[in-house]
Design goal:
Length: 237
Amino acid sequence: MSLKDIIELEKRAKNGDVNAQAELGFAYAYGNDIQQDYAKAVNWLRRASEGGHAQAQTNLGVCYQHGLGVAQNPVEALHWYAEAARLGDYQANYHMGLLYFEGLGVSQDVQKAAELCRQAAECDIPDAQAFMGWCYYGGHGVPKDVVESIKWWERAAAHGVIEAQYSLGSLFSSGEHVNKDNTKAYMWYRLAAGAGDEQARRELDNLSAKMSPEDKADGENRVSAWISTHPRSVGRG
């Protein structure tokens, strides 16, 4: 946004435009074309949230959960996540699920956490999909099920969630609960390493040292094929 755009946006926000209030809150929170200022972000997100803007409510919840521009308060975070979820923002379900999992601002309930995160995962929230992979792998709030775990990690990996890509690499490299497959492990570690994950880079180097040139070439072909069909899979934390 240009300075002129920011001035116009602030004018609309001050005149009670809820969408402008939310957009201004996001801009201050993420430093988009404006100096990052969490206190100002909270001010505008609160005004938009009180006007019923679901995404603003979720982001205000994040501020309260992590103490960004406001005193840390998981109870208040839970309140705003619940409001946003009621309005259909499934990102809020994911954040609310994490609070239930940790028992922050609410009594710990890992089954409720998994239920909330699954709702978000089914609505294509990548971090929730990665979390469900972990839940099914470890049996956290759901029965252990490695097939389900792989399904959710692959869906998250397709969105570029590095943790999911690394987890799949580790799974196929170890051969724990699945058939050991170094070329699959190579592919997943390679994707995570390519996005800047140093642990994945180290694991990839260790794995490569044990592989034949042919197997490494196969791994590279798998990487290329995956990226060509999943262009969003390259790189997000």
